[in-house]
Amino acid sequence: MTDDKKGTRMLYRLIVILLIEIGKVHETLGSAVACPETEGSEAKVLGNIDRLIDKGITGLYPLKALLMASNNWYTFTIVREGLFRDVLLEGIEKGALAPDNQEGWSWMKFASLSNDPADFMTDTDCYYDLVMSATENGNPDAREIMDMIWEPENCQEED
Fold first, then answer.
1. 26 with 72: CB under 8 angstroms?
2. Is 159 inside a domain boundary?
């Protein structure tokens, strides 16, 4: 394994460890409350995510958007929707939600489990096209998001 791959894996591990630690602290807080106690760790997580994105791992943009837009990293409730959309759109421009970017779609599904996925984008046509394209290319996470958002349209009325 190359040093670059080792470094990438180490950053991932550090991110996960810090997310778990921060989540434990945030578990007792309300979703709208920022926690000064975890600010340093949160900055480390976001810095490491940026380092991995700079290495070309664009699938982390949805996670970055979610963390930046949430005060509580246990509930992951988005309290700054505009910031979430801005960071996500930056990621989309860089391929974060390309049909074959499994990591990006996995993090989008994660964000969708804690928030209303219909609120993620103001441009619903663009979002629908992204989700549909990934679904058509066999992405299971995009399919689950599609079912969450457009479930009523998939249901047939009974006579």
1. yes
2. no
